Request: fold
Amino acid sequence: MGSEPSLDLNTAVRGHWEARSCGTWEEIVGDAPEKSLEWFRRVENHRYQAEPCIHAVAQFTRYHGKKILEIGVGAGTDHLQWARAGAECHGVDLTDAAIANTTAHLAHYGFRSELRRIDAETLPFADASFDVVYSWGVIHHSESPEKIIREIHRILKPGGRFIGMMYRRNSVLTLRTWVRHALLKGRPWKSFRQVLWNHMESLGTKGYTEPELKSMFGDFAFCETIPYLTVYDTDKIPRVIHQFFPPGCGWFIGIRARKQDR
Ligand SMILES: C[S@@+](CC[C@H](N)C(=O)[O-])C[C@H]1O[C@@H](n2cnc3c(N)ncnc32)[C@H](O)[C@@H]1O
Reply:
């Protein structure tokens, strides 16, 4: 699906996210000392103001006592919600930065998790060993999202849940990115796929349609996709205009899938 061949895309993806975990940008954390409680509080406050749909999709408190794996823990903000909800927490990420941030983030609140720095395209866990796998805004960054989804299905127990979010290709944010990096650069023939691959966060980012995602989660007994118009779509567009944008042209697609029972 990528527009350019890459010998080792996940090395580039790792390099991008090692520099800074998602959501820890300077304009969010300001002058708070790195990894201090205040630094993480600013990250958390900003995150749930910008992405209020996370709680609606994840429904953290429904999974008290369940064994969960988060793929792509980033700064550990959602991981903290799983810990607060009383889940048995395990997490993985491609970067050392994310593992260090998540460890420090949870420690401020007296929680811990089994965290590992690995590429989720091969998960070092036994078949049928998790009740829930959660992954917010991660799978579309990897070289082979299909491999990660196969691994998620393998490690879920019968009846287990996948909960997460992936990006929509045909979204307002993609259109804005295309205007900036294709149209205004005199290259209107560039596709949405190419623009996302080259200009959205780490190299190789992909976006999907809801039918494509349902097909990728086709091994699951059930898969619901939930469209969300986000602040990233509507930023700087007057409300009188963006109030008419439907959720189906928004950047986020929430996903809730269930593996078949035994
Ligand atoms: C956009 S950030 C999202 C982080 C966090 N879930 C959040 O919402 O803030 C993407 C994260 O996915 C991780 N990631 C990307 N590809 C991965 C892979 N193949 N295996 C594990 N983690 C991966 C990156 O290191 C990065 O921390």
Q: What stands out?
A: Residues 10, 13, 17, 21-23, 71-72, 74-75, 92-95, 98, 119-121, 136-138, 141-142, 201 surround S-adenosylmethionine (CB under 6 Å). The chain has one domain: 9-258. Strands lie at 67-71, 88-93, 114-117, 130-136, 156-167, 222-228, 252-258. The first strand starts at residue 67 and ends at 71.
